[in-house]
Fold this sequence. Notes:
By secondary structure, this protein is an alpha+beta fold. It has 4 helices and 5 strands, in the order βαααββββα.
Amino acid sequence: MPLDKPAPYVVLRTPPFEAAVGSLRKRYPKVDTDIDAFLESAEFCERPRERAAPIAGIPHYWKARIKIGTANVGKRGGLRLIYRIVDDARIILPVVVYSKRDLEDVTKEQIANSLGDVRPFFLEHLVKKGLDPKKFKLD
């Protein structure tokens, strides 16, 4: 008898993430296609830690590379996606996305600042789903 696969993670597009995508759209008009393909892929939704690197000093946060195929830019010079994995709720929260050409790396402070905007969004989602927000940590 096959083992039941766990439910895939759900990606919740956060306000800071959407704002960053809007900024990228100015340079790469079709960047949504590349980002959507990555976020909606079965591989990412089922195994979000695969092909990503943990961010040192910030538990539960990961960084992935995304190619910009619509602009013919590979993963190495493409986009960087910083996201938070909430295992108990099976949720992925994209927090920051940026072009490697614009920024070498983000700081812990930049991630922490984005988290301030993500927290109320996440808690509101939990309440809408009938879940107790006190059971889920978002640090």
